Amino acid sequence: MRKYLFLIGCSCACAQPALADDKAAGGADIIVTATGLPQSIDRTGQAVTVIGREEIEQVQGADITRVLRRLPGTTFTRTGPLGSLTLLGVRGAPAGQTLVLIDGVRANDPASANAEFDLSQLAAGTIESIELLRGPNSVVWGSQAMGGVMNITTRIENGYSASLEYGGARRVTATGAAGYADERLEAGLSGSFVDGQGHSAAASGTEDDGFRQYNIGGRARYRLSDALSLVADARYARGKVELDGFPPPAFTFADADVSEKLTAWSGRIGAMYESDALTLNAGYALADTERVGDDPYFPYALDGRSERAELFGRVSLPAGFALDFGADHEWSRFANAPDAGKANTTSGHALLGYYGDRLQLAAGLRYDDHSRFGGEWTFGANGAFEFAPGWRLRAAYGEGFKAPTLYQLLSQYGNPALAPERSKGYEAGIAHGRRGEPVFLALTAYRRDSRNLVDFFSCWGGSDPLCATRPFGFYYNVGKGRAQGAELEAGLELQPGLTTSFAYSYTDTENRTPGDPDRGNRFARRPEHLVTASLDWDVNDRLALGLDIRWNGAAWDDRGNHSRLESYVLGDVRASWRVHDRVELFGRVENLWNERYVIAAGYGTEGRAAYVGVRLRK
What pLDDT score does 8 carry? Predict the structure, then answer.
């Protein structure tokens, strides 16, 4: 029955949560990460940033990390060329502690080691908007939302559009979208194709490792009445990336004839009821990710699937109060032959809020009943106060809970004795204006204390009784950790058509486990300082120019803090020329000064590359 429901979703192409309106009264962005239902970004005290399609097209290219690095608090790890495993970390948290939604569907992979989402599945040209909530929001979203929540909305057109780009290591990127919208029906399809020669995954290698991927997605909404709508969405991605391995006789990371095939698909069908007093959004969602690696010495075949029945609701109460609530049941499973396993979770939450003209307050509870770990309560609260026109104070507190993944429990490296990870997060900030307005400023300080963090113990460099049955190593709870820091966002319109934006992140991470030999060390691959600065100039109605600069501070590649990743600076320049209302030419140069930099020790990165393209607008 579930397969038939998914096929219905594929035939409808889907929407979550609203297609037509992405702005509230007064121009504020509409977000869903704070409560699970659409609301104005001004109604939460949590740190949320939204990047829209116009900005995504300004940045150009298929690589979504080039867009996301404009957001404060974001770090990335990529182990090879475009198309290889790409992970997002938020505020010093590992990638598995950031929940990723695509058109409302939870896309994190249950078969990956830490249940991360691999960003290489996405092409920026198929995305309408990106919404990132930084900080814990487990009250609404449960496990995996300890570090943050990212919601990606795919494109939908009332008409059609397409683009074609070529450059770099013979990389071709094509995107297209088409759709229809009227008072009752909104529906659309979008897709992309990326093919490139790439560069060596191993920094020591000389053989290029290429990448090919295509994906297609759609979403739709049909209004049965002014209050009741049917919604559906679906996406499919398939790709192959060439990688390197550990060939004999040295068995060190070097050129090798190795590749990985990825197949990922997801979908959701549901119904949404909206009135002044009550909003309900109910649905069934499914996500599946399969990876097959053909390394002759270390082959693997991973398949993870999650299914979810869910309900989000909101009741408007008198005197500016509202009650957000929800319930869901999730079935998850993984397979990595000969290992396999499954788990399920039943959850419910409620969030009571007061939303006045100047003061907003919300607090709530969630209960998760996990089939392997029993019950768990989490609490969260946030508030904001407009103390002067355009100026807001914000504060939030959130508890986090993350059950060990099925891979960490049941794979050849599994440890059934693992305990769930838990955290407490605090933040406070001040903001003036909104992102995209002539003057914008936001400053946030935060701290997150975690315990029972899961890490990997290698039996090659240590001894433990569990090594008798796990000779290569196993997962274990390392104890306590802390991540604290500050984020600064700023934007300024210097003159009509000339704008600049700036994002700075300071992240101080520390292993605080008593008795641990690595106590006091920083978390791996978490730079202490990150800066992104951008300048955009609309010279006239046709010509636009842009500059992006990203400085990554130094970091450590390992939890023992033995291997250092040096700081680096990347610069991109870009331009676009609108030939007429329907056709636009664009181009850019990435890594302008050909910086030789390292994201992960032993892995190669791309040098200077130039791209040109054409875009057809609806």
Answer: 33
Q: What is the pLDDT of residue 14?
A: 35
Q: Tell me, what's the pLDDT at 23?
A: 67
pLDDT of 617: 79
Question: What residue has token string 């594929």?
Answer: 10
493: Cβ contacts below 8 Å, ≥ 6 apart: 438, 439, 499
Residues 106, 108, 109: CA angle, nearest 5 degrees? 130
pLDDT value of position 464: 77
Name the residue among 565, 560, 536 with its Cα closest to residue 59. Answer: 536
> Are the CB atoms for 567 and 589 separated by under 8 Å?
no
Q: Using H for helix, E for strand and C for coil, what is the string for 517-581?
A: CCCCCCCCCCCCEEEEEEEEEECCCCEEEEEEEEEECCEECCCCCCCEECCEEEEEEEEEEEEEC
Q: Render the burial of 349-388: b for 16+ CB within 10 Å, e for the rest.
A: bbbbbebeeeebbbbbebebebebbeebebebbbbbebee
When divided into structural domains, the chain yields a total of 1
5 and 269 Cβ atoms separated by less than 8 Å: yes
∠ CA 238-240-243, rounded to 5°: 150
Q: Nearest CA to 582 among 545, 537, 618?
A: 618
Q: CA quadruple 79, 254, 302, 198: dihedral positive or negative?
A: positive
Is the distance from CB of 81 to CB of 258 less than 8 angstroms?
no
Contact 83, 119 (CB under 8 A): no
Question: Which of these, 451, 532, 523, lies nearest to 93 by C-alpha position?
Answer: 523
Task: Give pLDDT, residue 189.
Answer: 93
* Residue 241, strand partner residues: 211, 260
DSSP conformational letter for 299: -
Domain span including residue 357? 2-616
Residue appearing with tokens 């659309």: 188
**CATH at 232:** 2.40.170.20
Long-range CB pairs of 359-363 (<8 Å, 24+ gap) are: 359/383, 359/384, 359/385, 359/386, 360/42, 360/43, 360/44, 360/45, 360/384, 360/385, 361/45, 362/35, 362/44, 362/45, 362/324
Nearest to 303 by CA among 340, 345, 343: 340
Neighbours of 204 (CB within 10 A): 13
**Which residues contact residue 62 at a Cβ distance below 8 angstroms, ignoring those fewer than 6 apart?**
82, 123, 124, 125, 165, 173, 175, 192, 194
| pLDDT < 50 positions in the chain | 1-21
For residue 549, give the nearest of 595, 481, 506 by alpha carbon: 595
What type of residue sits at position 107?
A
Q: What is the pLDDT of residue 432?
A: 96
pLDDT at 3 (0 to 100): 37
Angle, CA 144 vertex, CA 140 and CA 147 arms, to 5°: 90
Q: Is the peptide bond before 249 cis (omega within 30 degrees of 0)?
A: yes
For residue 15, the model assigns a pLDDT of 36
d(CA 376, CA 352): 20
Residue 194's closest CA among 223, 210, 226, 172?
172
How far apart CA 439 and CA 448 sit, in angstroms, is: 30
Please state, as a whole number, how many other Cβ atoms lie within 10 Å of the Cβ of residue 317: 13
